[in-house]
Amino acid sequence: MPTPPGPGLDVGVLLDRVGGIAPIEAVEVAAGALVGMLGARNLTFLIADFSGRAVVRLTTGTADVEGARTQAGAQAETVPMSGTVYERVLRTQEVDVHPLEDGARIIAPVTDRGDAIGLLELVLPAHPAPTAIADVAAAAHALAYVVIAARRYTDVFEWGQRTTPFSLAAEIQRRLLPTSYTCEAGQFTLAGWLEPAASVGGDTFDFTLNRDALHVSITDAVGHEVEAALLATLLVGALRNARRKGLDLAGQARYANGALAENASPGQFVTGQLLRVDLSSGTAAIVNAGHPSPLRLRNGRVQEIGLGIEPPFGVVPGRSFQPQDFQLQPGDRIIFLTDGMQERNAASLDVEVALRDTGDLHPREVVQELGAAVLRATGGDLRDDATMVCLDWYGGRPRRSDSVNGADAGLVSPARAQRRRQA
User: Is the keyword DNA damage assigned to this protein (predicted)?
Assistant: First the structure.
């Protein structure tokens, strides 16, 4: 169960302070409230950059910061993470306390359901007691809700997270991805990542969690740039529409295939996989529309999961798709990926070895590390998008997550997950 706020923190007052003000000011007003509640100073919020390799200090102050970007009254200072305390805190999801001559610096993860939004950094006037550290952790969790709510109404957070400009195709592609790239739940943890090619290749991933089922998709539209992005938009829109109509897995695939056959140009198609996990029974089914086989890490061994192959979406009008049983065991780690991970200029990357080497990492880190590995293998010259989704399956009955302040901090590997499968 989440750690309750300490006596110095009133979450209700914090949320009341940000109601009705401009979204761009929400985080700083929340920060001001926290300064008073916690007796803190030098409090700043750092949002995770889309690259996964930096954080960005967002402020609305007027003071010039060397190297910072400015737009619409906001400043964004990019801070590389490699080898820093920021990287360690995001990775471990544990609060860092560093003694100072006149107090202590605290860095806490700003996270919700495992989605690492950023960091809260502040200085307290004295070395904190455990209750004060708990207050800061709870404040950081509350700040996650402030950011989630505020960014629906402004471009500032999205702008701050972009250390490189987006092309039009990348902008369209970004809109197709889920709002959160990570989801922790009692029975599973899931994380996705997309490394875009210099010429956007039309990859997407998506997921949704209902009361009784987890739906996951990964897709790859033929072509590049705006043409591929628009084709991906048609496919993802059809899948979401079918899912929200309540169609079963076969119905979703048939509906999406029909949407492409009726609305896309001849020769346009999308490969993809659609997965549905029944959370009550722990069983799963998958549709494989011409897509690369997923990989499974089980008991330290990586294997390709053999699937029957059906035509890509949009190739055969009126086609019906047959869902296949998809075997899951507690402790399994499944990686779904697009062919950008296997392109010729990424040949030096052995995905199976990389998957074994990251076996003790959280899925959020696994997909980022695989993305970084394909960039290293290609010298940063991706010819096609490289997209991956990591699903850790813990099994057991439907239950609450063991989340504390927005993250399952102690659950970072299938091996640990297996030890709690009877929970």
Answer: no
